[in-house]
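Comment thread on ticket #2218

A.B. wrote:
> Attaching the input chain for the structure job we discussed in standup.
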Amino acid sequence: MIKILIINGHPDKESFNFGLAEAYKKGALSRGHEVKEIIIRDLNFNPNLQFGYRKRTELEPDLLDAQEKIKWADHLVLIYPVWWGSIPAIMKGFFDRVFLPGFAFQKRGKSVWWDKLLKNKSARIISTLDQPAWYYWLVYGKPSNNAVKKLTLQFCGINPVRVTNIGPIRLSKEIYRQKWINKIERFGEQGK
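C.D. wrote:
> Ran it. Output below, let me know if you need it in another format.
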């Protein structure tokens, strides 16, 4: 049994991303995995890291709860659309406010190095695109994958991080979307 945290970064509850999250959850629960969720759009928090790291901003209760869920989890599943080559603004604000020094990483005094505080966890990124996944990789270099996988999750010690890009969604047919729902449900069953 694996403790899985699904983090949904899409601001629209009627989006395909919510269908993917439900499919993953259904698969995971069918195999007895424990599942918790963070639906970022439902959290009450200021996404602006107002003072950067210069001055501490107190965390809202929803963000404290999010940190507890992240600590609890063995495996994180991040689901979001790629907009302008990146993640939705609300998800970026969530990362800025939650993955803080002392929780996710710790800079070492008088050094360029840091300690990774979220080790012994794995993750899967599931992102949706309005272009073919191969095009996003080949032409643009998959910037959101790099930012979330390498510069956020792995920076904090979460490894391995698997990536699934699904696209194009905008002009896709129901049979294509259902194929992906089925595949994501299987990922949930496997806890990966």
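A.B. wrote:
> Thanks. Noting for the ticket: DSSP finds six helices and seven strands in the chain.
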